[in-house]
Amino acid sequence: MAERLLYGGRDVAFAPYGEYWRQARRICVVHLLSARRVLSFRRVREEEAATLVARVRAAGGAIDLVEHLTAYSNTVVSRAVFGDESARGLYGDVDRGRALRKLFDDFVELLGQEPMGELLPWLGWVDAVRGLDGKVQRTFEALDSILEKVIDDHRHRRREVGRQMDDDSGGGGGGGGHRDFVDVLLDVNETDKDDAGVHLGTIEIKAIILDMLAAGTDTTTTAMEWAMAELITHRDAMRKAQDEIRAVVGVTGRVTEDHMDRLPYLKAMLKETLRLHPPNPLLVPHVPLADVEILDCMVPAHTRVFINAWTIGRDPTTWGEHAEKFMPERFLNNNLDYKGQDFELIPFGAGRRGCPGIGFAVPTIEMALASLLYYFNWEARPVDRRSKSGTSSLDMSEVNGISVRLKYGLPLMAKSYFS
After folding, report:
1. Where residue 266 falls among pLDDT bands split at 50, 70, 90?
2. What 3-state class would DSSP assign to 164?
3. All structural domains of the chain with their residue ranges
4. How many Å apart are CA 256 and CA 43, to the nearest integer?
5. Is 55 exposed, middle or buried (0-12, 13-18, 19+ CB in 10 A)?
6. Whose CA is closest to 368, among 34, 74, 39?
7. CA 167, chain centre distance (Å)
8. What is the rounded distance in angstroms from the CA atom of residue 367 to the CA atom of residue 258?
9. Which of these, 30, 21, 152, lies nearest to 82 by C-alpha position?
10. Where would a tag sit more exposed on the chain, N or C end, judged by fewer CB atoms within 10 A?
11. Residue 355, annotated ligand binder?
12. pLDDT tens digits, one per residue of 162-175
């Protein structure tokens, strides 16, 4: 599926190890996801968090929070990737924005499917009969046309302004190096392809952009929805997080990223959420380049290997007898982190195949959660389904895929704290 949807493996997440992958990852780390570049999108995160709060307030209490979290993630990532102008064109209309989010959902869902023809080649015709091949082609063509138009628009705008772009006049429209990812990739295409040793053409740019959109939207939304779900079902943790945020921000304040470093309980709560609910429980597939022996088990070269981050995060040998329990306090008095140095907690992977977008994802998640917890009091609302009628406890059933989401969303009641 990655080959069919991501231009034959010209992206970063699924590209085979080799010179192209090394240079493509270097471009992402150095040019797209550096600390300076991530900081340049602070304004975007704060603005979209404020929009998220306004959207929840306008909904009038009873909402499915997942829809709003998805819109927030989509818009933050799209503004970073495409720039403010292009993102407004894509999401400015409510119906168009909803259709585009559905398209990205289909893309992520298809990535997690296994075609019958790959399992049993002689049954490959089943994929055509059940409509899978057609859906893959339609999704790919729709996304490709959007990306082609965005790249063409950027090239047209760059021709109009010449080659005089600098950090204060980039395509993102902001200062401080706030250029969008498409502009940065086009810069690399024009100035760095000889140094990189790879040709970063339009196909490669589109594949890397799709990586950013899929990873940045799906995993971010998944982490936020599980965090809110755990807080709803653990009221003491919810109260502690809200008390901390409201004490730091103040009664008449406004949540900004300046507050995040003074919210240790919020950070511990996010770590605990990622421990219990890594957005991609099996990470991305790994392939050893040579035969390797692990715990007396011989793994032949080129075997597809999956790392079960979900089980590692719940291992009682590491986490004790309460490994299955949601306890943010376990992270308050230690330096355990999720950045790939502590192998008992690897929701973003580790090593050279670890996710390069941690620095972008974490402040995006923290900003949204802090805003929602500061402005609103939350509780589960009664739902009616054939299997469960009128229960006010949150249903934590899961739906499987590359990411593991809540099956029934987040039907919640939001009550404004500052009335």
Report:
1. very high
2. coil
3. 1-165+179-416
4. 9
5. middle
6. 74
7. 26
8. 10
9. 152
10. C
11. yes
12. 655 444 444 443 33
What is the model's pLDDT at position 169? Answer: 42
342: left (phi over 0), alpha (psi -120 to 50) or beta: beta
The dihedrals phi and psi of 240, each to the nearest 5 degrees, come to -60, -45
Q: Which two tokens stand for residue 161?
A: 């302004």
For residue 147, the one-letter residue type is L
Is the pLDDT reported for residue 382 higher than 90?
no
Confidence of residue 323 (pLDDT cuts 50, 70, 90): very high
Tokens found for residue 171: 């395509």
**Coil, strand or helix at 416:** strand
| Coil, strand or helix at 73 | helix
Q: Which of 381, 408, 406, 384 is nearest to 392 (CA)?
A: 381
Bridge partners of 405, per DSSP, are 399
110 within 8 A of 135, measured Cβ to Cβ: yes
Quote the tokens at residue 331. 């992270």
Task: Please give the sequence-ordered ranges of beta strands (E in DSSP) within 41-112, or none if there are none.
Answer: 62-64
A 10 A CB-CB count for 105 gives 16
339: its two tokens:
């950045």
The Cα 63–Cα 381 span in angstroms is 9
pLDDT digits (tens, 9 = 90+) for 170-190: 444 333 345 789 988 888 887
Report how far residue 14's alpha carbon sits from residue 3's, in angstroms, rounded to the nearest whole number. Answer: 8
Q: Per the structure block, which two tokens stand in for 321?
A: 């007898």
Q: Hey, what are 194's tokens?
A: 């000889």
Tokens 């079960």 label which residue? 308
Tell the residue number behind the tokens 């085979």, with chain if given: 16
- Beta strands at 383-384 and 376-380: parallel, antiparallel or unpaired: unpaired
Strands (E), 10-113: 62-64
Q: At what angle do helices 19-27 and 202-214 cross, to 10 degrees?
A: 60
Residue whose tokens read 């090394």: 22
Write out the two tokens for 308.
Answer: 């079960």
Of 1.10.630.10, 3.40.50.150, 3.60.15.10, 2.30.30.60, which CATH number belongs to 1-165+179-416? 1.10.630.10
